[in-house]
Amino acid sequence: MTEKKLEKNDPVRNWSWVVYPESAPENWRTLLDETGEKWIESPLHDKDINETTNEPKKAHWHIIISFSNKKSYKQVLKISEMLNAPEPVKTKNLQGSVQYLWHRNNPEKYQYNKSDVVAHNGFKYRQYLTDIGVDTDSILQEVIEWIKETGCSEYRDLVDYAVSERFDDWFPTVRSQTIFLNSYLRSNRHSQKKYNPETGEVL
């Protein structure tokens, strides 16, 4: 098996598709919503020009699905079949892919209105609207909720999870907010201990 094929089959959380109005089922958005996965769609790209032929491209949407767990190419190919869409593509840079939904960083292409971008099932994307950087507060809010839900009390466990499952969105913040997160995790460990109110001893 070639290295390229191995890379293609490596599971990741974020995948992208192109959806064409003439081939997608009428209820394609509902079908995606019913998966429960977070996803986002571009404005309808109906003014794109083929750079080689200078002819209009077929109208289409770009969509990105951010799965709750890593998915292989074979697993997400089912989405292509459901939407009658071309094969899925890995999203290696989530910020760049979100900004491409309206061609933010491609001034040579038609500039679509970013207010026409639509998020589904709680996909949080506003931190990717500019190049200023990730909205650290929003990411930290998600991280803290995860810590509460899982009872995580070790920074190493948090880092391991961020690297393996949330590398694109969480890891930069987890790496840069070490002092804050270590303090919070220590406090979390402390709160999990039970004390004798009279003696102050750990039970």
TrEMBL record:
<dbReference type="Pfam" id="PF01719">
    <property type="entry name" value="Rep_OBD"/>
</dbReference>
<protein>
    <submittedName>
        <fullName>RepB</fullName>
    </submittedName>
</protein>
<dbReference type="GO" id="GO:0006260">
    <property type="term" value="P:DNA replication"/>
</dbReference>
<dbReference type="InterPro" id="IPR002631">
    <property type="entry name" value="Plasmid_rep_OBD"/>
</dbReference>
<dbReference type="InterPro" id="IPR053923">
    <property type="entry name" value="RepB_C"/>
</dbReference>
<feature type="domain" description="Replication protein RepB C-terminal">
    <location>
        <begin position="135"/>
        <end position="190"/>
    </location>
</feature>
<dbReference type="GO" id="GO:0003916">
    <property type="term" value="F:DNA topoisomerase activity"/>
</dbReference>
<dbReference type="GO" id="GO:0003677">
    <property type="term" value="F:DNA binding"/>
</dbReference>
<keyword id="KW-0614">Plasmid</keyword>
<dbReference type="GO" id="GO:0005727">
    <property type="term" value="C:extrachromosomal circular DNA"/>
</dbReference>
<feature type="domain" description="Plasmid replication protein origin binding">
    <location>
        <begin position="12"/>
        <end position="124"/>
    </location>
</feature>
<dbReference type="Pfam" id="PF21861">
    <property type="entry name" value="RepB_C"/>
</dbReference>
